[in-house]
Amino acid sequence: MMKVTPSVFKALVISLILAAVVYGGYLLFRGADIMAPSLFRPASGTRLIMSMDGFRFSQSENGDVSWRMSARSADLYENKEAQLKDIEIVFKSPDNKEATLLGEQGTMDTSNGNASIKRGVREVRIITSNGYLLTTDSLFWKAGERLVWTTDPFKLLGKEIYLEGTGLSANVNMSTIAVRDHVKAVLQE
Asked: Higher confidence at residue 174 or residue 131?
């Protein structure tokens, strides 16, 4: 008969218990879909492709640049969205008038040029070459139609008019403006 020392006996018992736990775990989890913790998985559908300093984007019509965007930094995602910081969009009309949209943060769909700009420390602003200044907390830009709009309160100051209200839709050269609510206007000479 073989003599078993206490240390060999402990090692044998620990090995049997460990084997039982591993086999029990196998029986319990076989066929189960085990996922990694969310900390280790990328977000679904919005995987970051690239981060960059200095981002430029433009759209041309008939060989002429109709608008161009620049941003201090951009994060580009798999779903064609760009997260932007310190944004400037310059719009050019066929008659060479310009409007410049300035904002601190925003997103842009790089497949169609549509963008949303949100207030940071400063409000979102549009400055036109014919002397208008529009300020608000957020602006949305629809590139194909050359329209900006907001549902937020806004103020528009020009040479002949001061206008404020809530909700605005306008073409970028400010020749057509529609205000939704709470309109106040002062005509100046």
From this structure: 131
Q: What is the pLDDT of residues 15-53, one digit of tens each?
A: 888 877 777 777 776 766 555 555 555 555 578 888 999
Q: Could you tell me the domains of the chain?
A: 48-187 (2.60.450.10)
Long-range contacts from 134-138, C-beta under 8 angstroms, 24+ separation: 134/168, 134/170, 134/174, 136/168
Q: Which two tokens stand for residue 64?
A: 């002429």
Could you list the beta-strand ranges (E) of the chain: 48-61, 64-77, 81-92, 98-109, 115-118, 124-128, 133-136, 138-142, 147-157, 161-171, 177-187
Per-residue pLDDT at 174: 54
DSSP 129: T
